[in-house]
C-alpha cells in the first residue's frame, strides 16, 4: 500500500509540473520557492540530502528563470518539467528516509502552496485562467503581455 501511494504522489508531482510548464516562468518560480523551502527544512531538521537537493534545484531554476521570464526566450520542455516534478515528488520521501520524521511527508504537500489560488488549481489554458480569475477573489490576471485588474468595490 505504501509503495502505491509513493508512486501516485511522484506521478502526480510530475504531471503537475508538466502542466505548469505551459505558463511562462510558473514552473521555475515554484521550483525556486519549493527548493528554498526544502533547503530550509532540510538544514533545520537534519535531512541534509533533501536540503542539498532543494538548494541545488532552486539555484538551477533561478538561473533558468532569467531566460524563461515573460516573454520567454527558452522553455523548459518535458525533460525539465519531468525532472522538477520527480525531484519535488521524491524529496519528501528522501527526507523521511533520512530522518524518520513523518512531518516531512506533509511538508511535501505544503511546499506546493503556490500552485493553488483561492482553492482553485493553477491552470494552463488561457480560457481556464480567465474562468478561474472571474470565479475567485484574485485581483490580477496576467496572460502574456495582457494585464487585467478587477475594479475596486
Which secondary structure elements does this structure contain, and how are they paired or packed?
Blueprint: H1 2-20, H2 26-45, H3 48-68, H4 77-99, H5 103-110, E1 116-117, E2 120-121, H6 126-135, E3 140-143, E4 146-149
Antiparallel strand pairs: 1-2, 3-4
Helix pairs in contact: 1-4, 2-3, 2-4, 3-4, 4-5
Provide keyphrases for this structure.
153 residues; mainly alpha; two-stranded antiparallel ribbon; 8% strand
Characterization of this structure:
- With 153 residues, the protein is mainly alpha-helical.
- The chain is 66% helix and 8% strand.
- It is built from six helices and four strands; from the N terminus they run αααααββαββ.
- The longest helix is centred in the middle third of the chain and has 23 residues, at 77-99.
- The protein starts with a helix and ends with a strand.
Number of strands: 4
Instruction: Give the overall pLDDT as a whole number.
Output: 83
Order of helices and strands: HHHHHEEHEE
> Which of globular, elongated, flat, extended, rod-shaped describes the shape?
globular
Number of helices: 6
User: How far apart are the termini?
Assistant: 50 Å
Class computed from helices, strands and strand pairing = mainly alpha
Quaternary assembly: single chain
Strand order of the largest sheet: 1-2
- Main β-sheet: number of strands, strand sense, barrel status? 2 strands, antiparallel
Beta content:
5-15%
Radius of gyration: 16 Å
Low-confidence stretches: none
Helix content: 55-70%
Task: Summarize this structure briefly.
This protein has 153 residues and is mostly helical.
Amino acid at each position: 500500500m505504501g509503495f502505491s501511494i509513493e508512486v501516485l504522489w511522484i506521478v502526480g508531482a510530475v504531471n503537475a509540473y508538466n502542466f505548469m510548464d505551459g505558463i511562462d516562468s510558473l514552473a521555475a518560480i515554484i521550483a525556486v520557492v519549493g527548493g528554498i523551502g526544502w533547503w530550509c527544512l532540510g538544514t533545520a531538521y537534519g535531512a541534509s540530502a533533501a536540503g542539498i537537493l532543494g538548494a541545488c534545484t532552486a539555484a538551477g531554476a533561478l538561473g533558468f528563470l532569467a531566460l524563461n521570464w515573460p516573454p520567454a526566450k527558452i522553455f523548459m520542455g518535458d525533460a525539465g518539467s519531468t525532472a522538477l516534478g520527480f525531484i519535488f515528488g521524491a524529496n519528501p520521501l528522501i527526507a523521511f528516509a533520512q530522518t524518520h520524521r513523518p512531518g516531512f511527508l506533509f511538508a511535501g504537500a505544503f511546499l506546493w502552496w503556490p500552485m493553488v489560488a483561492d482553492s482553485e488549481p493553477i491552470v494552463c489554458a488561457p480560457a481556464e485562467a480567465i474562468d478561474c480569475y472571474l470565479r475567485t477573489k484574485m485581483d490580477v490576471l496576467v496572460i502574456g503581455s495582457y494585464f487585467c485588474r478587477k475594479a475596486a468595490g
